[in-house]
Structure formats: C-alpha cells, structure tokens
Inverse folding.
C-alpha cells in the first residue's frame, strides 16, 4: 500500500559533486546534489544553484564551471563545502582541497577528484528557489590513478565514488550487473 | 596527474529510475539514467529522453510522467526496460512489474517501487540526442514498507535503492554521514 504525500524532492540517490568556479579573481567550491546528465551528444549536464549562493554570480559572470566527482576520502570536504559559504573565506583553504589549473575552462579543478568535467554554460533556466545551469562538457580530466595502465580505460569502480541519498552520503556497494545484463546470453 | 579526454557524459554515479507514462490507451515503462533534481521549491526534476524512444511521444502527448525509484530486487526488470522498446510489446507484462493507478496523474506507477514521484511537464528543452522534460512534482507515493510505523518517517536506507555508475548498477554501500556532519559538534 502506498501513502500519498505532498510534492517534494524525492529523487534518490543523486550525485554529490563539487562544483568549482571562478570570476573576477575569486574562485570558489560548491557542493551540488541537484545535478544530472541531460544529453549524450553534445555531452551536457545541469547543475541547479540558488541565486543567493556566492558561486551563482561567479558562474553567471564567467559562464564556466567544473563538476568534480567526489570519493569517500573527500566526503568530509564535500560536506563542508556544502555547509560553508565562499563569502566567509577561501573554501579551497578551508576544505583542504587543492586547486589545479583548468584546461578547457579558466576556473580551477579539484586535484583530489578522480574525474573533473569542464563545462561551458549554454543556458540558464530560472525555476524558483534554484536556477538551472545547462552546461556543455568541454573536456574531461581523468586522474592517472583511475586509469588501467594495461588497457588505458577508466576504472571508476576503484575510485571510491560516493552518492547522496535522502540527506546522507554513501559509498557504492554491491555490483549488480552491467547495462544489458538482463538480456545477455550466459 | 590528469589526462585530458574529449567531452563525454562522465557525471557519476547517477540515478537509474523507471519512468512510467501513458497516452492514447497505451502505457509504457522506460529506464532513465539522465535524470536529476533541478529545483527545491517548486519541487522539480528533469528526465532526458531520445525523441525516437516510444515513451517520448507518450510523455509529450500527456505532458505527465512518473519517476519510480528502483531497488536491487528490481535491478533485472530495470535493466530490461532500458534495453527493450515498448513498440515491440507490453513492457509491464515483459518486465513482470505491476502497474498501480496514478493519484495526481493519469499514468500508472510501478507498484514494486518504494517511492513514485508523479510529475507534470512544465517545459521541453531540445538539446541534441535528447529532449529534456522539466517536470514539476505533483505528489509523491511512498510505500508503507518504507515508512517507520513509530515515527511516520520515510526510511529509504532500508529500501535497497540502486545507483548507476559508468555503465553498471550498484547497491548503496557504507554510510558515510549525514549532510552537515563535517561541522556538527560531537
């Protein structure tokens, strides 16, 4: 039996990523759970940010941002960047995360992150509490430690990525199968 | 050290949800990983669907859909609904999933799903391979089995939700902390 509840943001689990951005000589980090892939080709993702957040103006000014995937080792810093504001101090310093130079965008990426997705803003859609930034992926920075030296392929399973579910962070758990496993011949 | 790769859809992990929809007497199920929360108030989420998918026309005609969260017990059916097309037969029957009546929308929801999020389409944004449907949440159906009878609160940790990472399905693993744990006094 199902109970009917009022509308709420109940999509779970969702990503918990660190968004880095910069404009006018200031750079910041913002933790975002309201993020998703929105198109395969061109590769695009969206992040939603409250207009009152310090990072909102930086992204709007520069029209660039980087989505940095997060790991269990980065969970505390990820949470901290979601609670604190860049208005009150340098969040790179406060979180202990290391800025590394961007490649296809001018804002820094997070050196500790296994995968950094550099994006250019194509559209901003105001929705209510949040503005949605539609980002086109410019390029992807993949850490050597996550690349199998034998195959050159990305091994994200080894990276220890985290996810966000109903207000809490979790590691990934049991492997259940690859896409298409239900129709694959044994 | 980081390698620079060409643009790709590298946001991970992402949701793996079953989208149910109906129009003109036909109902269908579609597995979507390109989904995300986009606004807190009004509560909104987006799903991205290729125009050539059978469900695309059903959602566009009815301007309604339901996002059904998926569990480890539903992993095989979830994968199957992502591989097969509703053009080739009834996916409810083929997947073994059970349609239950919608409450705030006319399309059915998935009875096996712990949480079903009923949505009305507010905007369709064509992006390339995918059209993004911006859905406003109408209401949320929560299964009795996921509600703590003592508190009336949703216990999603017990639901066994799954996530999708780099082409594979995973259960949620180790609990790493609640939002704000990095600044909470001990």
């Amino acid at each position: 039996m199902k109970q009917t509840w009022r509308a709420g943001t109940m999509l779970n689990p969702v990503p918990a990523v660190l968004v880095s951005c910069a404009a006018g000589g200031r750079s910041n980090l913002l933790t975002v759970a309201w993020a998703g892939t929105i198109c395969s080709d061109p590769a695009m993702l969206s992040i939603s940010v409250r207009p009152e957040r310090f990072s909102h103006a930086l992204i709007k000014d520069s029209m660039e941002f980087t989505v940095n995937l997060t790991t269990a080792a980065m969970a505390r810093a990820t949470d901290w960047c979601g609670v604190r504001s860049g208005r009150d101090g340098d969040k790179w310093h406060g979180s202990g995360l290391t800025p590394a130079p961007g490649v296809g965008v001018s804002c820094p990426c997070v050196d500790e992150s296994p995968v950094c997705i550099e994006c250019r803003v194509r559209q901003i859609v105001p929705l209510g509490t949040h503005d949605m930034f539609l980002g086109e992926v410019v390029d992807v920075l993949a850490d050597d430690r996550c690349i199998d030296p034998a195959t050159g392929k990305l091994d994200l399973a080894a990276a220890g990525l985290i996810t966000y579910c109903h207000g809490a962070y979790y590691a990934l758990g049991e492997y259940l199968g690859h896409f298409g496993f239900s129709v694959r011949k044994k």
About this structure: Residues 35 and 47 of chain A are 4 Å apart (CA to CA). The helical segments of chain A are 54-62, 75-83, 91-95.
